[in-house]
Specification:
This protein has four helices and no strands. It is an all-alpha fold. The longest helix has 29 residues.
Length: about 100
């Protein structure tokens, strides 16, 4: 497994983003994240949207607790770092002459 990621750094970035989306989904499902709770689809959409640096919600922002708001901000930051990393990998691959 380590050999695969050493040869294909882009796979590491993609699998890391998928792992953060799944982790974010599970954390949004916790009762500490929202006041009224949310469905699995809402949690998955919110985590995916946050990782993609958009942060769209399918429920009112006011239903997020302080933990939920912090989680949303952290996922947006992680997604931004992932996009920058992916851009740098692609730039280094295509700029080699």
């Amino acid at each position: 497994m380590r050999f695969i990621f050493a040869r294909h750094t882009s796979l590491l970035v993609i699998f890391s983003l998928i792992a953060f989306i799944l982790l974010g989904t599970l954390l949004f499902l916790l009762p500490q994240s929202t006041i009224n709770g949310c469905s699995f689809i809402d949690a998955l959409f919110t985590a995916t949207s946050a990782i993609c640096s958009i942060g769209i919600l399918t429920f009112p922002f006011t239903t997020l607790t302080a933990f939920g708001k912090l989680l949303l901000l952290i996922l947006i930051q992680i997604g931004g770092i992932g996009i920058v990393t992916l851009f740098m990998i692609l730039t280094s691959l295509f700029s080699q002459v």
